[in-house]
Write a structure and sequence with these properties.
With 751 residues, the chain is of the alpha/beta class. It has 27 helices and 23 strands. Keywords: Cell membrane, Membrane, Transmembrane, Transmembrane helix.
Amino acid sequence: MRKIRVKKPDIKGFFQRVRNIRWGDIKQYIKARRERRARILEKRRNSAFAKKMQPVYKWMNRLSLLCHFVLACILNFLIEVISRHSLFAAWNYLIGSPKVFLFNTYLIFATFSIVYLFKRRVFTRILLSVFWLILGISNGYMLMKRVTPFNAQDLKVASDAVSLINNYFNPFELTLLAIGIVAVVVWVISMWRRGGQYTGKIYRIPALLGVVVWIGGYVVLTNVAIDQRVVSNYFGNIAFAYEDYGFPYCFTASVFNTGINEPADYTKETMDEITDNGDYNKSVTGKATDELPNIMFVQLESYFDPTEVEWLTFSSDPIPNLRNLYANYSRGYFKAPSVGAGTANTEFEVLTGMSMRFFGPGEYPYKTYVKENVCESAASALGKLGYGTEALHNNGGNFYSRAKVFNNMGFDHYTSKEFMNILQTTPKGWATDDVLIPNIMESMDTTEGRDFVFTVSVQGHGDYPTEPVLENPEIIVGGVEDEGKRNAWEYYVNEVHEMDKFVGSLIQKVQARNEPTVLVFYGDHLPTLGLEAKDLKSRYLYNTNYVIWDNIGLEKKDMNLAAYQIMAEVFDRLDIHAGTVFNYHQNRRKSKNYQADLELLQYDILYGKQYAYQKNGAPITEGHMEMGVKDVEVTDLISQLDGTYSIYGENFTKWSKVYVNDEKQDSKFLNNTRIELTDTKLENGDELEISQVGSSNTIFRTSQTYVYQDGKLMKKEDWEAWKAEQETQEADGAQPETDQAAEQSVSEQQP
């Protein structure tokens, strides 16, 4: 059998040649490479195939605009096939809305005008085609995982999504994604080398003018299409808008159409009339301070009453606790601003009283306006009445920029998952909601007075597995013939059942505090389970459910409320009149121009001249929020035989990271009282801190500084006092005490 011989690499010879290389050799190599490349290109141009294709290329160059239009049609159709997950649905869209299809085709066609600025025209066409297809594929995949299509605002939360990639992609999908990306990159690079170049003269100024003309033509055509009602610039339902108006237009609109455009009748006189001459910008109440209750809002991820689905059956009621609340306390449908996704937008509406309908399509104000600017909210309004304001979420502190947003809204504290000792997760990796209860109680303990607590849960988050993952589900679901869909529904319903248990446990804990409290539960949006309006008793995809529990004897008053109305309604029932927008809702909700004037008010507060604040001043000018409510405490440090250290203390979590002299160390979280410090050698005088660290290495909160001295840790101020004493004794000529006798360890300082 013939042996396979592997030639040994001449590493020594390689380095010898590198050392002896001269500049002239480099220039000669580059020249030879260029000549070789020129010979290859010349050979290709003179090949039999190239000669046959020359008339074709010449014809294509003359008719390049027509070719671009044909290519744009093909790309547009492929994008819709991918987005709609159906060839027939895309075809029905094409023949059913030909004007919309051609309008979207023109947008893609206009982008191909860039080709004429470059010699590598084939490569540029390929690059543009790949760009549009990647957008279409992203939209198609997004719609497999959620109801909301892919839009420009998703790009602004891309860094957050990376940390959750395992929740949306299984290992097989991740592998296919990686292979696909590598294959596309390799192909594009190969086309850069093989695509050839345009041999004619490039007239760049006329080409640039052409780009301006084609793109400008699209802007003009868009205005005409809107005027003729071919498309719309308002997406009441972004998912339906993508179906009606096509992906290219809708995605582009989400890129450029953000914020709130100035209404035509925006003047100071108009705003004075809307805000009752600025008097809405007040925070007042008819109750004495000791009569005010705690106000708690709990946003339940993807929650709604499963019995709202007409064809779904259950082995037992999945929400017995909430069902009891529905029977005895105020309840109704809760109109969310989106379907299947958009948790942050529901939060925004509830906390600010502002409606998302006036913002750009698919926009997240958390990522556009509130991330960088202060914004009055329920927290700032109640803060003026002496409330402590707390926010909690059992997900990452940076997700949807909440750490910045809640600060800009006026909260006192925000407790994210980085401060929670999360022991249990769902089969899909989301934290269970029971971890919120002790953290809510700790947040309320930060003040002696009343609290406003806003909590966002995560347990019910999708996607929902089509394979069975629950060994012994408490609730058995029926009424679904497809096994995969039944598994998904059964998983979701059992998570809702766990959320219902959380609701019951939280109410028990609140009752035990024996404080007057109003507690509101609501769902942020429907789950991504393919529901249609005809499947629901309410016949409306934006409806979830809410209920208002209290222990102060509020009258049961059932009504349907939008997300942006519920805070004002709760305030009104408590005789609280705080916050400009909430006061507007309380006074104008049944008025003739309610929605039009709400748009004016939102524009004035966020993007206008803030006439509403001129009389009484802005409700909030800067944030003061702290992350978490407890510091990490170190009680002892033990040196192990293998050279590692065990740090003992309190309030450690999986996101507690050890820093020595401001440098992050390798450490291992064992439990909430112990962290192992590995690969670190401590020296006398080294300063040690423990920080709660979020995504992108964001440090949210840091413990006090400890100093290492002879195998022990001391608080820095104690170490400095001890060090000063040693120096004083040495200056006086006295014999200083030994380090071991002089210093007090952290463990000895603890009571």
